[in-house]
């Protein structure tokens, strides 16, 4: 009985920790091309609404009519949070598309952004502190594609990606991040195995 109580308590704690920062995760993909860098940035609906009060009808769904008037303020915010340098020069940011999509696991505001280069992109450095205001421990899980290589990188409020100092390439592609539910289940299974 004591063992079962510990398992339930630990499971509840792990579930609480996993759920506590769900809203502080964003996802991004950077494509470093010859003369520009393309970015697709995804904010969960919760992230979006914590930063921007734009769900006018409070239906938990963002329409294009709600997004379009907010696009200028959203771009202004992102320009202050994302910096991309090539050869030591900061590249300008251009918002190409802003949309809202619903997928089985979550709903996302999707920003498609281009950083046009001043010629050929050289030694890019990327800073991406997009959720600094919502959570000091936020994570931006990113795939950074340079040529045929894709690096998995986790941006936080205190780090940046420097292509001149990347670790040696390991022959793997960026993988989809596990859902919180499966992470909690795996942790619980491990604890149960240890207790037995």
Describe this structure as you would to a colleague:
The protein has 196 residues and is α+β, with helices and mostly antiparallel strands. The protein has helices spanning 2-20, 45-51, 64-67, 71-81, 180-195; strands at residues 25-32, 36-44, 82-86, 89-90, 94-102, 107-116, 125-128, 139-146, 149-155, 161-162. The strands form 2 sheets. The chain has a 6-stranded mixed sheet. The protein has a 4-stranded antiparallel sheet with strand order 4-3-7-10. A hairpin with a 2-residue loop joins β8 and β9. The relative contact order is 0.19.
Oligomeric state, counting identical vs distinct chains:
single chain
Strand content: 25-35%
Q: Rg to the nearest angstrom?
A: 19 Å
N-to-C CA distance: 13 Å
Number of helices: 5
Spatial ordering of strands, largest sheet = 5-6-2-1-8-9
Overall number of strands:
10
How do the strands and helices of this protein lay out in sequence?
Blueprint (H helix, E strand, L loop, with lengths): L1 H19 L4 E8 L3 E9 H7 L12 H4 L3 H11 E5 L2 E2 L3 E9 L4 E10 L8 E4 L10 E8 L2 E7 L5 E2 L17 H16 L1
Parallel strand pairs: 1-8
Antiparallel strand pairs: 1-2, 2-6, 3-4, 3-7, 5-6, 7-10, 8-9
Helix pairs in contact: 1-5
List keywords for this structure.
196 residues; alpha+beta; 6-stranded mixed beta sheet; 33% strand; disordered C terminus
Précis, in short:
With 196 residues, the chain is α+β, with helices and mostly antiparallel strands. Helix content is 29%, strand content 33%. Helix 1 (2-20) runs antiparallel to helix 5 (180-195).
